[in-house]
Automatic annotation (TrEMBL):
Coiled-coil zones: none
Domain of life of the native organism: Eukaryota
Protein name as catalogued: Enhancer of rudimentary homolog
PANTHER family xref list: ENHANCER OF RUDIMENTARY ERH, ENHANCER OF RUDIMENTARY HOMOLOG
Taxonomic placement: Eukaryota, Viridiplantae, Streptophyta, Embryophyta, Tracheophyta
Originating species: Phoenix dactylifera
Length: 103
């Protein structure tokens, strides 16, 4: 699973101009990137709070609040990108955070 080139496609609102993508070297880095987006949003909304905490439900609500979110993950065996939806991303984020918490 490591080192699978991952592209996150995202649209934050109904405005098509908010479409963007983020490019990562692995699925794990992509999940960190999505968590980082949420954490930056929390800091922007709460600039006076030094230590902000959140749980997985808050992160899922952020993800569900995006107009669109999907992932393209490179599959070496077929030399192509495979598409994955928002639900897959949420499952992967949960697994990723669980692994980080157990360290």
């Amino acid at each position: 699973m490591a080192n699978r080139h991952t592209i996150i496609l995202m649209q934050t609102s109904q405005n098509r101009a908010t479409r963007t993508f983020m490019d990562y070297n692995s699925i794990s880095q992509a999940m960190d990137g999505i968590c980082g987006l949420y954490e930056r949003k929390l800091k922007d909304l709460n600039p006076t709070i030094g230590n902000i905490t959140y749980d997985i439900t808050d992160l899922y609500n952020f993800i569900d609040g995006l107009t669109d979110l999907s992932a393209l993950v490179y599959e070496h065996s077929i030399q192509a990108f495979l598409p994955y939806d928002r639900q897959w991303i949420k499952q992967r984020i949960f697994q990723h955070l669980k692994k980080l918490a157990s360290r």
